[in-house]
Amino acid sequence: MVEALYLDDMFRKRFEAEVISVTDDKYVVLSQTAFYPKSGGVANDLGVLIHDNERFDVVYVGKFGGKISHEVDKPGLNVGDKIQGELDWDRRFILMRYHTAAHVLSGAFYRNLGAKITGNEISIDQGRIDFNLENFDRTLIEQEVQNSNNIIDQDYPVEVYSLDREEVENDPDLTKLAMGLPKNIKEIRIVDIKNFDRQPDGGCHVKSLKEIGKIKIKKLVNKGKNNRRLYFTIEE
Ligand SMILES: [Zn+2]
Predict the structure, then answer these.
(1) Which percentage of the chain shows pLDDT scores above 70?
(2) Which residue ranges form the domains of the chain, and what is each CATH number?
(3) CA of 51 to the centre of ligand 1 (A)
(4) Which pTM value belongs to this model?
């Protein structure tokens, strides 16, 4: 099991590691990594791996067969090499802001409208959430975006911790979300926006809500029966 450093420290920008495998001269698995792979609808990190003063740009990061794989821009890395990894931090921080904004929006939509989130996609220029809502009522949706911005203004802290599976399954707020997780996972990582919303979650978030900025609606799309789509941006 390769250690994903971002699970415990989402603000880690640099790390050292050893190359475990290299496939096709460009897919690199490391002994540990702070790079977030594209997953859960959130875009991957970018950055650089440095070995003996030579820089290898990381152009994509994905998860394959349970392993985090870093695609680099050129051959030259070998098994056993000691590398230093550096994230493109501006990119990561924007993704954390967008991803945390999606939590706030989905929390507000669920709490106030009973709308369930069915999908999401987070990139560096926009966020998208899909949700089940019977009527395509713009005013109602705009109101919940406003509510989300009011919640952000409360600047609640965002905490991350692990709970035993049993504890999660006995918690009425969490049990539904935990059901889909593989049975062999005994410890479940919880992301807890204090006073607001808790979820099992493997992603990266800001430390308190004001870091998000302000959510702005970019586009609302009616996707047919019960299915609505919101594109949003965030501003400083
Ligand atoms: Zn999350």
Answers:
(1) 99
(2) 3-87 (2.40.30.130), 92-235 (3.30.980.10)
(3) 32
(4) 0.94
